[in-house]
Design brief:
alpha/beta; Uracil-DNA Glycosylase, subunit E; 8 helices; 7 strands; binds uracil; Uracil-DNA_glycosylase-like
Length: 205
Amino acid sequence: MTKREKLIKLREKALADKKLPKFEGATKLVFGAGNAQAQILMLGESPGYWEDVKGIPFVGNAGKLLDQALQSIEVPRGDVFITNVVLYRPPGNRDPNPDEIEAFSPYIDGIIDILAPRVIVTLGRFSMAKFLPGVFISSVHGKPKEVSWKDKKIIVVPMYHPAAALRNGDVKAKMLRDFVVLKDVLESRDKLVDDKIKLEQMKLV
Ligand code: URA
């Protein structure tokens, strides 16, 4: 089975999973979107209004800023895979609680296992805490850290959430600087995506 097929199967499993928390008003499972061969996984918090409408992560204002930040380091959005630690929109965009994050974690872990990305960019404190518990984002943002993931090593680059960057110009400047760090990390590794397999683009909506 290809990675794309495995992701589609995992999405179907999540759609049928009656044990996942139900969020009042949420209309769609926002499983994730992007390139099944991506070597970068971007992990946000939870879908917002527009993500729920379209079924695609990071398509609202925060998503536009994320797109700009990716463009600033010349990484096409189609080269990455993007998802969140919670796959349904919490009511009124409230923060997800620990039980909710835990309930979705088998699917997030499944996505990581399938993609086997070299780099995970965490956007905001909720996805950061999955890999770097007990740290402050203000201390660790933009500092790549190698973490053990099962039998593999993954570089985690913690970043501020684009929605926080939209609210505060200093945070935005820091986030954009952290993308330059991400570029350095990518360039210090092998080529981002092998052109031969880059063709396998996917959109899971
Ligand atoms: N904020 C997130 O954390 N994720 C999205 O998909 C959109 C906004």
